[in-house]
Amino acid sequence: MSLHLSNVILHQLTKNDQDELVVNYREHALDNDTSSESLVAELHRVFHSKAGKGFGSFQSDSDFQQWLQELRRGERDFYDFSQVCAQRLNQEISKYPFAEEGTLVLAEYQSLATDYLFIGLLPSNHSLKVTEGLEILSTDYLDITKMDIAARIDLSRYDTDKDSNRYLAYIKGRVGRKVADFFLDFMQAEVGLDTKQQNLVLMQAVDDFCADSQLDKEETNNYRKQVAEYCNEQIKSGDEVFVKELSGELPASSDGTSFHQFAQEQGYELEESFPGDRATVRKLTKYVGAGGGLNVSFDSLLLGERIFYDPETDTLTIKGTPPNLRDQLSRDR
Is the pTM of this model over 0.85? Predict the structure, then answer.
């Protein structure tokens, strides 16, 4: 990938004899060489591919934002910026029971004409390696694929639109809101764009458009399928869902109204673009449910054809079971 690295530095959070987290500072930034560029490129790739990211923006009185602005204006160098960030991060993470040792990475770089600042606390793992003399040595390595404490600031968006609610992205992490809260506290930021809500609004707008256009069941299923295919392709490629672009791939209503026009006229609060949510998009073409030891999933077009639901008795009737399920049921009778 095309990546231009400006600055990258590592600090370590380690525990002292009192089991308290302390910062072990690196003396200077890393050299911008092939190894450091490869590290940042992999961090960028993995972060980009992570599902379940949250978005936000700085609070007006954020110290982190002040430090960042000083960095952008050249009033604070990157090394000093990294030190104050490490101090603040250590203070915030120490408040939580999941506080762990790790390697703090801060990187300032450009990818595809967009400037970014990455901040992540990476876990270390132990492994073995074989030397040229066929000796076995223990070694530590950064487990980048397992990172779940990380944030990335779109500096280009931040510089041009400080009122945006999404220039800051963070991984929500393995312990849900706990990690999100601590990272937001660290940067003194607040939750911004709600991607799941945007996806839910999009799904509702699609259903309402189909109903308003008086599409029959087959036409509605095909319409929903087209929306799902577009969204899944965007998710797969790491791109966002662009409402106007999506509308351009969908048929207009009988009176010529496009989906984009409908969404605007009816007042759906949709951003121009937003990350797709795979679980929400899946509901366009499938019915999915689990609970009480039962897990059910089927294509929506089967409802009323091979699968029937009676709300009065809360009964689901399936005509024609899958062969592998039928075999299991027959053997266990």
Answer: no
Query: Over 70: is that where the pLDDT of 125 sits?
Result: no
Name the pLDDT band for 141 (thresholds 50, 70, 90).
low
Q: Considering just the CA atoms, what is the radius of gyration of the chain in Å?
A: 25
Q: Domain extents for the chain?
A: 3-191, 195-282, 286-331
**Highest-pLDDT range among 84-88, 100-104, 161-165, 327-331:** 84-88
Q: Which residue has the tokens 């707008």?
A: 205
